Amino acid sequence: MNYIKKVTMGMINFLSNVRPQDKVKVKQRDNILVNVPHYNFKYLTSLKLNYGESTCSIFDEQIELNFYSFIKKESSRLIILLPGAVDRSKGAVGFQRYTWAKELNANVISFSDPTITESNDLKIGWFQNVSANFGVNYLYKTVKSVQKQLNIKDENVCFFGSSAGGFASLKVGEFNLKATVIAINPQIYLKNYSKNFYIPLLKYSYDRDNDLRKKYINRLKVDSKLITKRQGDTVIYQNIQDKEHVNLHLTPFINMLKPTQYNEIRLDEFEKIQPGVSVILYDDIVAKHSPPGKSETIDFINQIFDCDKLNSN
């Protein structure tokens, strides 16, 4: 009886510690984009993609993941677009840069950050989601599911994002070692970013106690050791006029690497990617942290990922 009582009380204590944000109520979302069909899936294992444009919602354990996809029959390559800061006046779910899909010669998926929900007012989530289900890990598993359906190899996948999306791209690159990773002006160490965004994120995702935050501290930074083990191209595209990110993110990260593990080059001297982490520096005093425009960015993605070539499997 004492054993049963102990186990029962343990379950009660566990359940009482489950926060509202750790629970995902299975529901149905209506169409998110005008004239784009939408599909709801109860679990990741039930995900099925359709050719052409669509949006999808996956309602799994402790996570709701929404994304836009443009699947092209003739392409064996996949570009993943990851979001930065969110304009909450437009809602919690959004697909940044999804309109670029028709101009990229690859299958394209634009993810909404699962950390950003109707239950909070966060503007940046860095794909943390909640402690019980790390968003970056679930992102990796979702992309692997897509790859399996489309018969796409790891080396034919590109993760792209700027700012917080750059962090998520680098972070998921720790899981997929062969994919290309392109990060523009990324955060690398979240604790070094503005406390106005970092503290609310900690409170939402890891607020039970300090021990929980310490346990998952590696989720809040890019692991230099894992990044240097990558086989795919890792490209950090950094504006030198973005002083905060140069001083608090890029420089500390580079200092963790050996000289043989990275290449630093100015954009006007760049010709091709070299082995190791490629740091490409550009100078835009007006834009500072803001990423380059659409045309320039697409050209850069094409140059790095070679989207104009459709590799066969």
Automatic annotation (TrEMBL):
It comes from the Bacteria. This is Alpha/beta hydrolase. InterPro entries: AB_hydrolase_fold. It comes from Thalassotalea fonticola.
